[in-house]
UniProtKB/TrEMBL annotation:
<feature type="domain" description="NAD(P)-binding">
    <location>
        <begin position="4"/>
        <end position="326"/>
    </location>
</feature>
<comment type="similarity">
    <text>Belongs to the NAD(P)-dependent epimerase/dehydratase family.</text>
</comment>
<dbReference type="GO" id="GO:0003978">
    <property type="term" value="F:UDP-glucose 4-epimerase activity"/>
</dbReference>
<keyword id="KW-0119">Carbohydrate metabolism</keyword>
<dbReference type="InterPro" id="IPR036291">
    <property type="entry name" value="NAD(P)-bd_dom_sf"/>
</dbReference>
<dbReference type="Pfam" id="PF16363">
    <property type="entry name" value="GDP_Man_Dehyd"/>
</dbReference>
<protein>
    <recommendedName>
        <fullName>UDP-glucose 4-epimerase</fullName>
        <ecNumber>5.1.3.2</ecNumber>
    </recommendedName>
</protein>
<dbReference type="GO" id="GO:0006012">
    <property type="term" value="P:galactose metabolic process"/>
</dbReference>
<comment type="pathway">
    <text>Carbohydrate metabolism; galactose metabolism.</text>
</comment>
<keyword id="KW-0413">Isomerase</keyword>
<dbReference type="GO" id="GO:0005829">
    <property type="term" value="C:cytosol"/>
</dbReference>
<keyword id="KW-0520">NAD</keyword>
<dbReference type="InterPro" id="IPR005886">
    <property type="entry name" value="UDP_G4E"/>
</dbReference>
<dbReference type="InterPro" id="IPR016040">
    <property type="entry name" value="NAD(P)-bd_dom"/>
</dbReference>
<comment type="subunit">
    <text>Homodimer.</text>
</comment>
Amino acid sequence: MKVLVTGGCGYIGSHTIVDLINNGFDVVSVDSNIRSSTQLLDGIEKITGKKVRNYKVDLCNLEDTHAVFHENRDIVGVIHFAALKTVPESVADPLFYFHNNLTSLINVLKCVKEFNIPNLVFSSSCSVYGNTTALPVVEETPLGEAQSPYARTKQMGEKIIEDYSRVNDTQSILLRYFNPVGAHPSALIGELPLGRPDNLVPVITQTAIGKIPKLTVFGHDYDTRDGSCIRDYIHVLDIANAHTKALQYLIDQKNKSNCEVFNLGTGNGVTVLEAIKAFEKISGVKLNYELGPRRPGDVIAIYANNTRAKQVLGWEPAIGIEDMMRTAWQWEVALRDRVLSN
C-alpha cells in the first residue's frame, strides 16, 4: 500500500517514513525543501534499503500539487506534515505562516477530494490548547487562545479538516503532539534545522558541540517548580510509530467518526532546566547557559493525557528523557564527524 507523506524530508516526516517502510508501506514524499534537505532521504535509504522518491513541490501551488496526486492515484492515504513551524518567526511574519500552512493544506484537501483518497492523518500540535490551566490536557480540553500565529494555523487547520470531513468520505485523524525530540539510534537521520534552531534540544546539542556559544533559558520566573517552562518531550520514534498506527487504524476502518483526535505525549512534564540536567548527565558535557527573559509566544506549561491513543490506537511511548537526549547527542556528534571527514 502506497502512502503520500508531505514534508517527508523534514524531521518527523523522515522518521515516520522509516516507520511506515518497516511496517510494509510503500512511500512517496512531497517536500519543497525550503526548510529541509534531501540529506535525510539518504539516511532513510541506508536504514531501510529503500530509495524514497521526493517530489520537490511547493504545496501552495495547486497545479504542481495536483500533478503529484495524478501520478500517484493508487495511494491509500496522506500523512500531512508540510508546514512552517517556528514560533518566533510566526510572531514576526504571521502572513507568511497563514499563507503557507493553510494554503498548502487546502490544496492537499482539494486533491484528496478529487482523487478520492480515503485516509488522511494531520500533523497537529499541543499548541492548539494555548495557555491552558487544565493539566494534563485531554482531547476534550477546550482550545485556548493561540499564543502564536503558528499555533493559530494548527487550530485553523484542524477546523478546516473537521468541516471538510463532515461533508466528504475521507477519514481523518488529527494528531496533537507535544515536543518531539531525539533521533534515530543509527544517527543516520535526526533533527536538521536550517540556520539557528528555536527548539530546545537542538539548541542544547549545538551549544554542547560548540556551534552555539551560549544557551538562553527563556523565562525563569514562571509558576513552575523551578521557574522554567514545562513541556512534554517525546521521542521522535514514538511519534513516528503513532502515525503508522493511526493510518492503519483508518485503513482497518476502526474509526467511529470521520474525524478523530489523539494526543501524543508521554504524560510527563519536564522543565527546561530538568531537560538541561538530563542532557548533562548522559553526555558528560557541562552546558554554557544563562537565564534570560520570557519569549513571546511561549506557553507556560503543557503535558498530555495520552490515554486515548493508548487505548484506541494501541500506541505506547517507550523511550525516556535520557534516551531522548542520548540519541539527539549521538546525531549531533555524527553530523560533526561527517563534516570533519569531508
